[in-house]
Design goal:
The complex is a heterodimer.
Chain A: H1 15-19, E1 35-41, E2 47-53, H2 55-59, E3 63-68, H3 69-72, E4 91-94, E5 106-107, E6 113-119, H4 122-131, E7 133-138, H5 145-148, E8 164-172, H6 175-180, E9 184-192, E10 195-196, E11 204-210, E12 215-220, H7 225-236, E13 243-246, H8 263-275, E14 279-282, H9 285-291, E15 294-295, E16 298-306, E17 312-324, H10 332-340, E18 350-358, H11 372-390, H12 394-401, E19 410-415, E20 421-424, H13 429-440, H14 442-455, E21 460-470, E22 477-483, E23 489-493, H15 502-514, E24 521-525, H16 542-569, E25 576-579, E26 582-585, E27 588-594, H17 595-601, E28 617-623, E29 630-641, E30 648-658, H18 665-685, E31 715-719, H19 742-753, E32 763-764, H20 768-780
Helix pairs in contact in A: 10-11, 11-19, 15-16, 18-19
Chain B: E1 5-11, E2 14-20, H1 26-33, E3 52-55, E4 58-61, E5 74-76, H2 89-96, H3 106-119, H4 125-132, H5 143-161
Parallel strand pairs in B: 1-5
Antiparallel strand pairs in B: 1-2, 3-4, 3-5
Helix pairs in contact in B: 2-5
Classes of the chains: A alpha+beta, B alpha+beta.
Chain lengths: 781, 165
């Protein structure tokens, strides 16, 4: 059947509610008798907790309760492990240490929760937090990754004999043998530092325990309502059916809201059940900087071996990864880094070794990109260095190494974040990169414009960065599609939505099959009462995995509709069409029956049905890919830099995406624009500054600078479509694509702009100040 | 027990009278006392603009205004711009141009833009970006928001040019 809705720029179903302030976010939930929580958080990054005096806090009028670790008694338990280390990898060492509900004996990062106050309103709760007296013994903080591994370093976890959280060694082929054949071996040290996700909506949770119905309802800003339900039920000794978790409209996820069982998620439902009162906790922005997870901190010692004509013979990457105070999320991020350090290149020999390090800083879990930007940064910096050493054009050296179109599926063999051997399923890499070069006018710029600009004393540079993005990983998602008595369609799926347009793209997938208007398909996502099997929205997998489950369910419903209509219209199924909410006979359009009528016929109130009949026109289906689909893209940028202030102006920004079948180009563009904006923040404006005591120095939007409308250029988006063979829709994810190559692109373009200074950039993030420092250092020799 | 202040103000055309603590923020008063949860709080330190409402027609950060400072004044929130059945032209333009993703920053941007286009009905892209520079958005990269403002300006101008019936 021809596609009529998939690939169309359909306007979003959800917009009218969002635009008129009628969409419900977690802090909008109001329940009679609602109490409000505030947490006492540690000012110190590392300390022994000697004692707490909450008596004054308890006395304050309006305070209902104050809880500490001691008050939780036998219910005090660290969060569950979220991702185990890969069972399929061979040399893995992993010490699991998970976050705790409230600090007991020891504090391991600034902002760690120590006690919670429950009061009639947040103002009183915060006043009472100030009443609490904390007796603690500050300890030396572990902040620097390398010093953390020195013998004699203070220990984040005293029961371990070092701050080594995990170690994983992987290899493909034989790097040492490849190195011996090389004409050029380059070594570099690359340092990447932390950034925040900084979603506009801070985290929050409302927990409402109803003693009479013995039921717990939770509203949570989570990207994973189903696991939150299951884990919360287990911890509170409830049946899963007694707990409902709703992720309503969420103001941006970007990864940290996929971290589960944050201390607040462990404490608030417990407190609600204990007090038999509904309780709300909403994070403020300062708390978000300390208590919501962050990412990117790594130090890489890398080596690349090449032949004289620029072919990569092998790559070696030994790196440290900062996990912060605990490591609930397993090895997901470093595995992604390992799997992206080869980029989209045909590299046959690769050795990679990661040591994950505990530090006295905020926990690290995936933030948009999730370890992939670091891998791409490594390989792209190395290729730029090699291009200069060998005198080969930077575009040409990449073209020579990109995986050719006939080499797919391309097996790398090392294990990925989904515990499977890394296989790049499909792709057509060089044409994508070529398209980006054409769109930005690369050759013309280098040949004609740049020399002219240089003569005018202007520092304008160009960059081009190809990259891969692993997407659409399993395990699975599910969906239920129902034709309702009204003839409209109802779809329930487990994945939540944080702005990426699921209410519309999923509706398009269903409308395509059932011949209805997109606005007649109602999607409910992220409510465990509606659908309770699945994992969540993360790793650029929502559209791929949930989308394909929804497609599968819609296909079954279509079949049921046709079967019933065929009987009703006394016409073979292959002569029937679905359009405009009706089933009609192909050449006799006035012989038709509506979906509403069919739905009612399928659910009779009287009479007998044939044995084996299922009532209604409904189907539930699941989809789990064999492995994740790998998307590809290329970004190109022209930027001008002021050599005195180091302020930049992006003149042109081009992206070309190949994410397989595009469901809605309008929404896709929005994801790319937003992803690039995030990446530009990562590259040049954002860095979390921790001092030697583990204190975060820039915990506010006044000092942590996320791009505003005046920093952002217009982004030109191009497409290439290489269908993925891994799913029916042929689609790949794209949620993180905009972000992944940007830091590498900035490094290249800035070096190119400042070519006469011969600066080599091996770190991220940059900033005007930092660039000035690097240049001054270079000039000082 | 703190001394309460008898606050009286107009919000979206309706008069409200309530005793409030002097330290209550306007954002909290609107959201929790009046139940107008369309105005969102994202930073509470006056940088991100998500909490922007119009105070006597001028955009202000409601997280930096005490409710008592609005005593005797008129406040317009996103709920006062339009409804699901009848979107304000600016809201409609945002829908057409896909200027909304998660929607959390949106109400603050809408109020800012409504006031901006009132002052500057025919803005350049540079002027639009400048006007938006006090509103942070993490989802859209601003491009479709700029498109929406341009579309809104165009549509409002066209509507004003229709001859009166």
């Amino acid at each position: 059947m021809t596609k009529t809705l998939i690939g169309k720029r359909v306007l979003r179903n959800e917009d009218p509610r969002l635009l008129t302030g009628q969409a419900q976010f977690v802090d909008d939930v109001e329940i009679p008798g609602l109490l409000h929580a505030a947490f006492l958080r540690s000012d110190h990054a590392h300390a022994r907790l000697l004692g707490l005096d909450v008596s004054a806090a308890r006395q304050r009028p309006g305070v209902v309760a104050v809880f500490t670790a001691e008050d939780m008694g036998a219910d005090w338990e660290p969060g569950p492990p979220l991702v185990s280390p890969p069972p399929t990898a061979k040399d893995v060492l992993f010490h699991s240490r998970r976050q705790v509900p409230l600090a007991k004996d020891k504090i391991r990062h600034a902002g760690e929760a120590i006690a919670v106050v429950i009061a009639e309103n947040r103002y009183i709760a915060e006043d009472a937090v100030e009443d609490i007296i904390v007796d603690l013994e500050p300890l030396e903080a572990v902040v620097d990754l390398e010093q953390a591994l020195h013998p004699g370093s203070p220990l984040v976890h005293d029961d371990l004999d070092s701050n080594l959280a995990a170690h994983l060694f992987q290899k493909k082929g034989d790097y040492e043998a490849a190195r011996k054949q090389a004409d050029l071996v380059l070594q570099r040290r690359i340092i990447i530092d932390r950034g925040a996700a900084a979603a506009m909506e801070n985290r929050g949770i409302v927990a409402d325990w109803d003693e009479r119905s013995q039921h717990l309802t939770i509203w949570d800003t989570t990207q994973a309502p189903i696991p939150i339900r299951n884990g919360t039920a287990a911890r509170l000794g409830l049946s899963e059916n007694q707990v409902r978790v709703i992720a309503p409209f969420i103001g941006g996820g970007f990864g940290p809201k996929m971290m589960m069982f944050y201390p607040e998620e462990l404490v608030i439902p417990w407190a609600a059940k204990k007090l038999k009162r509904p309780i709300k906790w909403i994070e403020d922005r300062r708390e978000n900087f300390y208590a919501t997870t962050q990412e990117r901190g790594q130090i890489h010692d890398v080596e690349i071996a090449l032949s004289r004509d620029g072919h990569i013979l092998g790559l070696k990457d030994i790196f440290l990864h900062d996990t912060g105070a605990y490591d609930p999320y397993g090895l997901t991020i470093p595995l992604n880094t390992q799997c992206h350090a080869m980029g989209g290149y045909d590299i046959k020999n690769f050795t990679t070794e990661v040591s994950v390090v505990f530090t006295n800083k905020t926990l690290v879990t995936p933030v948009r990109g999730a370890g992939r930007p670091q891998g791409i940064y490594v390989i792209e910096r190395l290729l730029d260095a090699a291009s200069k050493e060998l005198g080969i054009d930077p575009v040409e050296i990449r073209r020579r190494n990109l995986i050719p179109a006939d080499a797919f599926p391309y097996e790398h063999g090392i294990i990925d974040q989904a515990f499977s051997p890394l296989i790049l399923d499909s792709g057509n890499y060089w044409p994508v990169m070529q398209k980006a070069l054409e769109m930005i006018g690369y050759e013309k710029f280098i040949r004609d414009e740049q020399p002219r600009l240089r003569q005018d004393g202007r520092y304008v540079g160009i960059g081009i960065t190809p990259f891969i993005e692993s997407t659409g990983v399993g395990p699975y998602e599910g969906a239920r599609v129902t034709v309702e008595a009204s003839g409209k369609i109802f779809v329930a799926t487990g994945v939540g939505t944080q702005g990426q347009g699921h209410f519309t793209t999923f509706a398009q997938v269903v409308a395509e099959q059932l011949g209805v208007a997109v606005s007649d398909v109602r999607i409910v996502s992220g409510d465990t009462a509606e659908f309770h099997w699945g994992t969540g929205t993360f790793a650029s997998r929502g559209a791929v995995v949930a989308g394909n489950a929804i497609h599968a369910a819609a296909v079954i419903v279509r079949r049921k509709v046709l079967e019933l209509a065929s009987k009703q219209l006394d016409t073979p199924e292959d002569e029937l069409e679905l359009e405009g909410g009706r089933v009609r006979v192909a050449d006799i359009p006035n012989r038709s029956i509506s979906l509403a009528e069919l739905a009612n016929l399928a659910n009779p109130l009287r009479g007998a049905v044939e044995p084996g009949t299922e009532p209604g026109l409904e189907a539930t289906a699941y989809f789990g890919p064999r492995y994740g689909a790998t998307a590809f893209g290329a970004h190109a940028m022209i930027l001008e830099i002021d050599p005195e202030t180091m302020m930049i102006e992006i003149k042109r920004y081009v992206t070309v995406e190949d994410c397989g079948t595009v469901l809605n180009p309008l929404i896709l563009e929005g994801q790319i624009h937003g992803g690039v904006s995030f990446g530009i923040g990562n590259a040049y404006y954002e860095k979390l500054h921790f001092d030697e005591n583990g204190q975060l120095l820039n915990a506010s939007f006044a000092d942590y600078l996320i791009p505003s409308a005046t920093e952002m250029p217009r982004i030109e988006v191009g497409h290439v479509e290489t269908r993925s063979p891994l799913n029916e829709l042929g689609t790949k994810g794209v949620g993180e694509a905009g972000t992944i190559p940007v830091p590498a692109l900035f490094a290249q373009a800035i070096e190119n702009a400042l070519a006469d200074r011969e600066l080599e950039i091996l770190e991220s993030p940059l900033s005007p100040n930092r660039l000035y420092e690097l240049l001054s250092r270079k000039e000082a020799g | 027990m703190p001394k309460l202040f008898d606050l009286a103000l107009t919000v979206n055309g309706t008069r409200f009278e309530q005793a409030v603590e002097p330290r209550t923020l306007l954002s909290d008063f609107l959201r929790h006392d009046l139940g107008l949860t369309g105005t969102h709080v994202a930073c509470e330190h006056g940088v991100c603009g998500a909490c922007t409402v119009l105070l006597d027609g001028e955009p202000v950060r409601s997280c930096l205004v005490f409710a008592v400072q609005a005593h005797g004044h008129s406040v317009t929130t996103v709920e006062g711009l339009g409804s699901i059945e009848q979107l304000h032209p600016v809201q409609e333009a945002f829908r057409q141009a896909h200027g909304v993703q998660c929607g959390f920053c949106t109400p603050g941007i809408l109020t800012t833009v409504v006031a901006f286009l009132d002052d500057n009905p025919d803005p350049s892209e540079e002027e639009i970006r400048e006007a938006l520079s006090g509103n942070l958005c993490r989802c859209t990269g601003y491009q479709h928001i700029v498109d929406a403002v341009q579309l809104a300006a165009k549509n409002i101008k066209t509507a004003h040019q229709q001859p009166a019936r």
